[in-house]
């Protein structure tokens, strides 16, 4: 499976819109910062025809140390989830 890096995305957008890579890179950095900060603040970020980013909380739980089998406590954590839109799912499935 081929991988697309941030640098590849910046280069493609810069070429397609005749912009400098520095300008595109700064815009992408600002976008990612805004999405990350909003999610950290508990705000759902919705991008029409793409999907939603949302912070989720996981409760503390019991687990086992795989090396020793000893029970351990896994602390509560926050994470971010992405839910693709129907339009993106349809594009992925060729509809």
Description:
This protein folds into 2 domains: 1-43, Irregular (HU Protein, Chain A); 44-95, HU Protein, Chain A (Irregular), CATH 4.10.520.10. It is built from 3 helices and 5 strands; from the N terminus they run ααβββββα. The chain has helices at residues 6-16, 21-40, 86-92, and strands spanning 45-47, 51-58, 61-64, 71-74, 77-84. Strands 1-2-5 form a 3-stranded antiparallel sheet. A two-stranded antiparallel ribbon has the order 3-4. Helix 1 packs across helix 2 (21-40). The two termini are 21 Å apart.
Structural shape: elongated
Low-confidence stretches: none
Q: Which whole number gives the mean pLDDT?
A: 94
Number of helices: 3
Largest sheet: 3 strands, antiparallel
Q: Strand order of the main beta sheet, please?
A: 1-2-5
Rounded to the nearest angstrom, the distance between the terminal CA atoms is: 21 Å
**Can you tell me the number of structural domains?**
2
- Strand portion, in percent? 25-35%
CATH topology of the largest domain: HU Protein, Chain A
CATH class (first level) name of the largest domain: Few Secondary Structures
Q: Radius of gyration over alpha carbons? A: 19 Å
Q: How many DSSP E strands?
A: 5
Question: What order do the helices and strands come in, and which of them pair?
Answer:
Layout (H helix, E strand, L loop, with lengths): L5 H11 L4 H20 L4 E3 L3 E8 L2 E4 L6 E4 L2 E8 L1 H7 L3
Antiparallel strand pairs: 1-2, 2-5, 3-4
Helix pairs in contact: 1-2
Any key phrases for this structure?
HU Protein, Chain A, two-stranded antiparallel ribbon, alpha+beta, 95 residues, 2 domains, 5 strands, 3-stranded antiparallel beta sheet
